[in-house]
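Notebook, p. 212. Picked up where the previous page left off. The plan for this session was modest: take the two constructs that came back from the sequencing core last week, fold each one, and keep the raw output in the notebook itself so nobody has to go hunting through shared drives later. Recording the first one now, exactly as returned: residue sequence, then the structure token string.
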Amino acid sequence: MTASALLTQAAHDLVGAPQEGLGEERESRWRGRRIVRVGAAWHLGVLLLTETHALATAEVLRAADPGRRGYTAESARERAVRREEALRGGFDEGEVVHVGWSIIDVDAVDAGGSSGPLALIDGVPMVRWSAAGGYMPLEAYLRERVELLRGSAG
């Protein structure tokens, strides 16, 4: 099967399963920096799947009030600011938000190339399931991830 056929089947199998928010950074003179909702997707590990696109994940955060301001690490302060930007952008408190995602060119993968974490290797659609990990067959990866997501919906 092609990568596009596998992803289309996964999207079909996920209808009714919970989705997570897709956000984009915006900045304006009046409203400041914020992360606004631009859609929703099923989160399948290194992939985000919508009804029309496959996306590569990037930053994942939860919208939240930053709370206290006395952080011992600069990185903790930065994460709190990002969570607050999502809250200011219209996400609900505690809602999962994906930012910095990129569209995967599935046609390029089907044609024998690669895009994001997907590649066609020896005629088999494969996914790099972690930055340090190797490739595994996309079909098995999707089957496992769809099953996990469907199972958590019940």
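Okay, moving on. Second construct, recorded in the same format:
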Amino acid sequence: MTLAYDDLGAGRPVLLVHGHPFDRSMWRPQAEHLTRSGYRVITPDLRGYGASPSQDTRTGLDVFARDLVNLADHLGLERFVLGGLSMGGQIAMQLVRDHPARVRALLLADTFAGLDTPQARQARYDTADRITEEGMERYAEELLPKMISKQTRASRPDVEAHVRRMMRNAPKEGAAAALRGRAERPDYTKSLADVGVPTLVVVGGEDEFTPVGDAELIHRMTKGSTLVVIEGAGHLPNLERETEFNEALSTFLTSSGATP
């Protein structure tokens, strides 16, 4: 599997994993900030998203994680800082569980460690079938008000336009395959206790999809982790409040010893 990716800067590597239904441009503010600070930042499009192809009808999070390890091998990255948001955070939890020696430090943003309820699981299957049939446009418009806060929608038309564009342009087959695989993901809650690297947990204070309580649970289960709540942001604080997000990430990388 060949992933499309950006590889910017030089220094200690940071691999950032986007969420659903987005692409690698989701991490642009962090890639620009970290490369200016002396890091090497790798932002891939997951298989079936952006410019990365896929023929899957179901893509498990273990498959996404294996793709990322293969990309790291291709780039000669023995160890790296790993970050993910939402589904990307779940992929990061899968990767650090399966390949703990590869991860130097961990960022988990606006994500959820546990299993779906039976109703939520069925909703993923139903949504996958729906977007396969009708495409991403209506789905994107339904998601948008929950993805970013009311404050962001009122004050940051640039962010709203970027988020809408990513969602509407996501390949419907890849997004559907990921929804089906995500419905069958394992419970990562207990494995968080085995995470042996510095971990930053970030969440938007107004996140409707993965509320602050979900982040607090990850923080409690991951020993020695740091929790940062970014007020005024919804599910995408890295875009909605990029200055605060970047400051939290930079402070974490410095304090964790993951400096360039």
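Notes on construct two before I forget. Residues 37 and 260 are 8 Å apart (CA to CA).
Flagging for discussion at group meeting.
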